[in-house]
Amino acid sequence: MYKEFYGFKEKPFNLVPNPSYLFLSTKHANALSFLEYGLTEKVGFVMLTGEIGIGKTTIVRYLLNQIESDMDVAVIFNTNVLSDDLINLILSEFEIEYDDTITKAKALTLLYEFLIEKYSKGRKVLLIIDEAQNLSENVLEEIRMLSNLQTDEEMLLQIMIVGQPELRDKINDPRLEQFAQRIAVSYHLSAMTLEETEEYIDYRLEKAGGKPDLFFSDAVKKIYEISTGIPRTINLLCDASLVYGYADEKQKIDSGTVDQVVQDKGGMGVFTKNRLKPQDLEQIDPSSALHKTSPGNLIKRLIRVENNFSQLKALYHTYSKEIESRAQFCREEMLSELKTSLSRERKNNEKLALEHGRLQERYRLLLRKFRR
User: Fold this and answer.
1) Which helix or strand (DSSP H or E) is residue 128 part of?
2) Which domain holds residue 331?
């Protein structure tokens, strides 16, 4: 929508993690160095923690792109798993064939044979467990036991656990002391500073083929205040601001544009309550405002609704695909909950589509009225 207007070759602020867009702030560079050291030296368990949207997945994907040529990697996203099912899940992710009725002892034997085969060929084996803060104590204990799969010289299976800050609190529990002792390298990824946020925005703009100074400093400051330096929220704010700027034909984005984004999106739950002040949100009665809306303003509203609709649709598809990939490992109760969640998202999507249609119809009616 706005790519041609601002001279981009691609959208600079996509929500999907893209390793080629990794911006190495001081914290992100440190995290990458720690992870590289842990995997290169085979020092034991590696742990990466950070807030939602801080960039953990992007860093891990970037790292894998650098080292994956001589390494077999399996990633587990379904952390709502029972300890008895963990080994079978690992076998599936490494594409090791097994019978569904296999015993736990036999499953461990198959995994060990797989690791020995890879070791004999000089290949490394890495298991990444995402959203690890959801793991139960029993499952964490099962993971700790996997570190016993080793030769006399080195571990056969490297394990990286990635999760939100709650994971650190869980590991610090005295009952998990033995697990904590196996973690040789850990890093907590914190939010970016104001200066890093400005550099981050400029980096992504330039990476996409645009001008690095497209956002005024007051807009960057406003984005930082709302996002608190979290990359995913920065992306969301910047992308929406570019859409609004395009609608208003602004050559550069100012804080007023960001304010309008916050007002429009705040009510949709895009930002957490503690990041929004009550005065930031403007309550508008659509029925009373309709008669005061000019075609020009209505076009802008339509563009905003279309952007919101596209973003929600993209998030919905990403969310549904992730759930579908995880659901095959869940029991019937979990599957039922996931289906309910998907149904709720579909209804929300349908409501937004309906509102989009209504605004288009209003626009057509007003356009006919003004042409008369």
Assistant:
1) strand 124-129
2) 193-371
Euclidean distance between CA atoms 267 and 297, whole angstroms: 20
The strand pairing partners of 158, in sequence order, are: 126
Please give the average pLDDT of every successive group of 10 residues along the chain, which has 372 residues: 88 90 93 90 88 92 83 87 86 90 90 92 91 91 87 85 92 91 92 96 95 94 94 94 92 93 68 48 40 51 60 56 48 57 69 72 69 62
> Considering 133, 160, 189, which residue would you say is the last residue of a domain?
189
The span from the CA of 292 to the CA of 139, in Å, is 60
Tokens linked to 33: 């160095």
In a domain, residue 173? The reply is yes
Predicted pLDDT of residue 293? 45
Q: Angle at CA 234, nearest 5°, toward 15 and 214?
A: 105
In whole angstroms, give the CA distance from residue 47 to residue 40.
14
Same domain membership, residue 206 and residue 132: no
- Would 6 be classed as within a structural domain? no
State how far the Cα of 308 lies from the Cα of 314, in Å rounded to an integer.
10
Tell me if 32 is assigned to some domain: yes
Contact between 302 and 359 under an 8 Å Cβ cutoff? The reply is: yes
The number of distinct structural domains making up the chain is 2
In a domain? residue 17 = no
Q: So what's the pLDDT on residue 325?
A: 47
Whether residues 104 and 184 fall in one domain = yes
